[in-house]
Design a protein that fits this description.
heterodimer; A: about 260 residues; alpha/beta; TIM Barrel; nine-stranded parallel sheet; B: about 400 residues; four-stranded parallel sheet; 16 helices
Chain lengths: ~260, ~400
């Protein structure tokens, strides 16, 4: 069992997860941000490895990815930075990024490095279920990595069941039909969708993301799930000149 | 060897549908329905009628006599430049707009580089009375003002893509983001044989009219339906796939695809994907693309906006890898010279894209009597500014 699976197994309260882009705002901020987030109450983290063409992302994460690439970030460098991860951070860590970067690194090398540095799972939004099953699943399992699938308001019940079957940590429920960073309208529609998923009694816990930007939307979403993920709003709030204070300031609203 | 798509959506090692879950329902609906819709008799009749009466097909297959004398072979030009809107792009947009109607979609989105596909999309949207949004890189909007005006006049909304390099690749990203945000009422008309399955196959089928007609026209004009060579330029590769389609399984026909070498293969300003690229995933399919060791997509360069793309369609990647097609490249300068040559030998000003295919004739050795077909994918009106600058006209 990896740290992520352990976390959900022992879960007592709604979880808060934070996404940020590795290499942003400065190339070497990766571990410092993780440490600060653990200290200020995040339950688990998604560290984004940047890609030049992030189609599922809105303007904020596009910009942080571009800045990270301009700073010189690569997947190889990220693994180098994460060498001391487990001396400094104890909460579960996911890596999030696009499939081409993983392909170029090599799937086996990628998974093996994840295990070596203490990463617990991955979110690769453009890796299709078919390809995952055919080409990736065995490798992921060999290294004890959890692959996290997305579900959207348009995903059919049959497909959700299939995703549930393939998941071994949690399912990432995309709050609405949008890219990252749009504002979640806590509408009747969204609530009905969250309830519909809850009523399916899936074996996997569900965590809601996309459009969660503050305490209000966090509470509204997470009451229907095991927790929620904040990405763009956190990244937007990062102050390059005042890194720790800006993280602390953002996280205070949830304490 | 199977050169066409299999039931998994792959061409050998290439293809597939590498898309975020948000796009899955739309792409899956297309995958399930596209072939039945295309094969439907009523659809076929409607498509054929519009191609004939609206686009002006069949496009002529013209034996270019002075060019033939120069190269010592029979050089035929497939005149896609004579289509309504001035290029082959309209074959695909007519097909896809009819398909979008069958799917009950009310809103159309598209990406465009030089604006040719954007104009072809805006045109069919005006024709059928559908809302149209075209994504175009901010840089391209500035350098292709007449096409932007045409799209606007046709009633399309032109949205600037301001991310990344602000060109075709980024316009495609923005169109995909739009589709993610509008999953129910919107159809995305991709303009080339790229994107997630079934797009490469669907667009190839709509463009296959080019080689279908060519076969019949060759039979009429030469007594043989198979040529010795067919040539076409490749950006994403839609005119080339249309030109190759009905010849792919006749292995005696040599298929030559011409990429843009830009300022030279090793200049750092090139779009010669098969030479400079590696296998990877871009815009929803596994193919060959120009990228860094870290998997970041590299900005291409070509004088011709239509070839200025860092990837090629997955079927092209398969034809390249299996050796069925020869993939060559031509520099900006060679293409511009070939454009001038065709203009002065035959009185036809070609699009700079098509001029890349023509330029490759210089590098070939023919036997007397060889039949060679070059796809003249578009006309050069849109490129006059570039020609004027280069030749000081």
């Amino acid at each position: 069992m990896n740290r992520l699976q352990q976390l959900f197994k022992e879960q007592q309260k709604q979880l808060l997860s934070i996404y940020y882009t590795a290499g942003y705002p400065h190339l070497d901020d990766t571990l410092e941000i993780a440490e600060e987030l653990e200290k200020t109450g995040a339950d688990f983290l998604e560290i984004g490895f940047p890609y030049s063409d992030p189609v599922a992302d809105g303007p904020i994460i596009q910009a942080s990815s571009k800045q990270a690439l301009d700073n010189g970030m690569t997947l190889a460098l990220l693994f180098e930075q994460l060498k001391d991860l487990r001396q400094r951070v104890t909460i579960p860590i996911l890596l999030m990024g696009y499939v081409n970067v993983v392909l170029q690194y090599g799937v086996d090398a990628f998974c093996s490095k994840c295990k070596e540095v203490g990463v617990d799972g991955c979110i690769i939004p453009d890796l299709p279920m078919y390809e995952y099953e055919e080409l990736y699943q065995a490798t992921f399992e060999k290294y004890g990595l959890s692959n996290i699938f997305l579900v959207t308001p348009q995903t059919s019940e049959e497909r959700i069941r299939k995703i549930d079957g393939l998941s071994n940590a949690f399912i990432y429920l995309v709050s609405s039909s949008a890219t990252t960073g749009s504002n979640l309208a806590v509408s009747e529609n969204a609530t009905n969708y969250f309830k519909r998923i809850a009523d399916m009694k899936l074996k996997s816990p569900v965590v809601i993301g996309f459009g969660i930007s503050n305490k209000e939307t966090y509470l509204a979403a997470s009451q229907h799930a095991s927790g929620a993920i904040i990405g763009s709003a956190f990244v937007k709030n990062i102050d390059a000149n005042n890194l720790k204070a800006s993280i602390k300031g953002f996280m205070e609203q949830f304490s | 060897m199977n050169y066409f798509v299999d039931e998994r959506g792959y061409y050998g090692d290439f293809g597939g549908a590498y898309i975020p879950e948000m796009l899955y329902p739309n792409v899956e609906e297309l995958r399930q329905k596209y072939q039945a819709i295309i094969d439907d008799e009523q659809f076929h009749q409607e498509f054929k009628a519009l191609l004939k009466d609206y686009v002006g097909r069949p496009s002529p297959l013209y034996l270019a006599k002075r060019l033939s004398d120069k190269y010592g072979a029979n050089i035929f030009l497939k005149r896609e430049d004579l289509n309504h809107t001035g290029a082959h792009k309209i074959n695909n947009t007519i097909g896809q707009i009819l398909l979008a109607e069958k799917l009950g979609k009310k809103r159309i989105i598209a990406e465009t580089g030089a604006g040719q596909h954007g104009v072809a999309t805006a045109t069919v949207c005006a024709l059928r009375g559908l809302e149209c949004v075209v994504y175009m890189g901010e840089v391209d909007i500035k350098r292709q003002a007449p096409n932007v005006a045409r799209m606007k006049m046709l009633g399309a909304k032109v949205v600037a893509a301001t991310s990344g390099s602000k060109t075709l690749k980024d316009a495609t990203n923005e169109a995909m983001r739009d589709w993610i945000s509008n999953p129910v009422d919107t159809h995305y008309i991709i303009g080339s044989v790229v994107g997630p399955h079934p797009y490469p196959d669907m667009v190839a089928q709509f463009q296959s009219i080019i080689s279908f007609e060519t076969k019949n026209q060759l039979l009429e004009q030469t007594g043989k339906s198979l040529p010795d060579y067919v040539l076409a330029c490749v950006g994403g590769g839609s005119n080339a796939m249309g030109m190759f389609y009905h010849f792919i399984d006749d292995e005696t026909v040599k298929l030559i695809a011409v990429e843009a070498a830009g300022k030279g293969i090793d200049s750092g300003f090139s779009a010669a994907t098969t030479t400079l690229g590696k296998e990877g995933v871009l815009h929803g399919s596994r193919s060959i693309l120009m990228q860094t060791a870290d998997g970041q997509v590299v900005e291409p360069h070509s004088v011709s906006a239509g070839l200025d793309y860092p990837g090629i369609g997955p079927q092209h990647a398969h034809l390249f890898k299996t050796g069925r097609g020869l993939y060559a490249s031509i520099t900006d300068e060679e293409a511009l010279q070939a454009g001038l040559l065709l203009t002065q030998y035959e009185g036809i000003i070609p699009a700079i894209e098509s001029a890349h295919a023509l330029a490759y004739l210089e590098k070939m050795q023919f036997k007397a009597g060889d039949n060679v077909v070059v796809c003249l994918s578009g006309r050069g009106d849109k490129d006059m500014e570039t020609y004027m600058k280069y030749f000081n006209l």
